[in-house]
Structure formats: C-alpha cells, structure tokens
Amino acid sequence: MTLKQIAVRNLMRRKGKAAFVLAGLAIGIATVVAVISFVEAMTGDINHKLEKYGANILIVPRAESLPLTYGGLSLGGVSFEMEEIRETDLARVNSIKNYRNIAALGPLVLGVVKIDTHRVLLSGVDFKTARILKPWWVVDGVFPEAEGVLSGSEAARVLNLQTGSPVNIKGRQLLVSGVLRPTGSQDDQLLFTTMATAQEILEKSGRVSMAEVAALCQNCPIDEMVQQISEALPGAKVMAIQQVVKGRMETLAHFRKFSYGVSGVVILIGALVVLVTMMGSVRERTEEIGIFRAIGFRKSHVMRIVFLEAGIVSVLAGLIGYAAGFAATSAGLRLFIEDRMVHLNVSPGLAAFSFGLALVIGLASSAYPALMAARMDPNDALRAL
User: Which of the listed residues 183, 211, 240 is the one where a domain comes to its end?
Assistant: First the structure.
C-alpha cells in the first residue's frame, strides 16, 4: 500500500474531521476570492466607463480674471488680457510624451449669436472627435456638413426648430440637419456647427475657445499628461476633470484594504482550524503511528502521510473556495449593484492563486502536527495498545 493510499483511507475513516478542515479552508479562500473579484469587477466597470464617457482634460485660455460671485449669485466678471488659443498651437498636444494615451482631441470655438430675438451660444466642433468625446449624443437626423446646424433639444424648443428648418445667423442661411435628444447637460441649449463655419461666422479664424481631451484609459498618467500639455501650451490653462473619479477610486481602495484585512483574519482562522484539527488527528492516531514506525516507516514517511492528507484537503478547499467565492460575488453584484453592465469574468490567475493559497495554508498549518507525529516515540505509541 502506498503512502497516498494510506492518506486517502485515513481521510475516509475520519470524514468529520476532514470535512471540518475542508470547510475552514474553503470559507477562507471563498472570502478572499469574493473580495478580490468584487473589487476588480467594480474597478473594471469604472475604467470601462472612463474609457467610454466624456473627456477628462480641459484646455482653456489662461486669463487674469476675478469672477464676481457671492452666495451662488453671479454679478459678472472682470477679465484682463484674455486670449484665445491658436489652432496651430493646439497641434503641439500631439507631440507630448504620452501622446499615445490621447484617444481624442476636440477643439471648440464658442460665441454668442442672435437668432430672431434670442441670444444663443454657437459652438463650432469637430464632429468626428465629438462622437468619441460625447458618445451619449443621439441625433434625430444627421450630423451637419459645412452649411448645417445641429440643435440642442432646448434650443430647438425655444427657437421652434426641427430637422430641415432654416436658420439665419449673421446673414448666413444654414439648415438644421439634426436635433439632439435631451442630454441633461448644457449641450441642450447650444447650436453646433462645423469648426470652419463657426470660425467664419464668429470671425475667429484660426482660433479656438477651448479644447477637450479624452485620455480616459486604464492607468493613464493623467496628472503627468496635464503637466506635459501645460508645458506644450504655456499660454493655456490645463485642468483635469477627475474629482468624482478619484473619489470612487479612493473609496474602492479603502474598501480593498479593509476587505484584505478581513480576509487575512478569516484566512488566519482557517489556518488555526487546520492546525488544531490536524493536531487532534495525530493524537488520536498514536497507536497507528506506532505500528507504522514499528514495521519500518521512517520519520519522513510519517510526515509525508500527514502532508498528503493536508494537501488533498487543501486542493479540494481551493477548488470549492474559488467556485463559492465566484458565485457569491456574482450573486452580490446582481443584488447590490443596480448597473447591470458590471461584468464578472472568470480569472485563471485568481483561480490559480486561490488554489496555491489553499495549498500553502494547508501544508504550513500541518507542518507542526506532521513534525509532532514524526517525533513520536514508537515504544510509547506501542505501549498504548
């Protein structure tokens, strides 16, 4: 009979203790898997949304301005030496060190125009980059060409515009090619046209009012990119719009640290369960170990039997723990997360980690019981018969 067969038979004869060790280890592994899976799923969801929605860097002209506001009431402002950004200077953004992290660069030119008796903000945009920067836009109609206008929903209501309606802006006749569906943002109140058309109407040839940069990729060095763009455009003010994102990421980081602490405590308890149970099992098998030593088993053989028992249970605990942790995370996301777009992917790396962690904990916790069994005096063990 081989040592492996002896270990398996020992586990079968002591099913209760084996199940107790298995449960302790499996619960610890399941907790770790559930915590890591949940945090990774939420982090991946945030990164996915960052890559999909909106810009996170704004480039605006640098100005010496003192906004006159008090208690949320705007009383106007005083601006000195405010200059717009030259379109040629904006091209320097594509030469920064981290230019590969830029998904889209969208210049805007802004100006107030009068249509009938209403004053409206006209925005010149690059509609190709706008589709990347504002993927939430839904247009009833089509994006405009050179002589067209895209109207925000509120602007269309106030100005009584619809697709195909003519709009006279400073003596220039344009057609409404489409109307934006409500976005809940300031876009609803604007009229949009191409950059070239807006620059001609507003007499701002070769100049832009601001620019939006989409650098929303996972682990993009946003702060470094802001610094690089600031150096490339010394006459502009570069701002990172990431306060909300940072808040969510910091919350997840704190949750991760707290969860790792809880997981560590659970793992420690699981290790103690293995240690105590294996020690009790060794003491119960004094006679058996004495017989093994009497018939020629070496200390290493006895230790290998104990380690084989712990290893078999640990492997099963790793597999069961990973499956249970994954199932718990999946159920938790469905119950507590309203966003059904959060996906939980099977991670081979996490599965291997849980398997290895269970094996290490099981074997490490069995080291002292195995040593205790190997040091047992066969004469004392046989006297107990």
Answer: 240
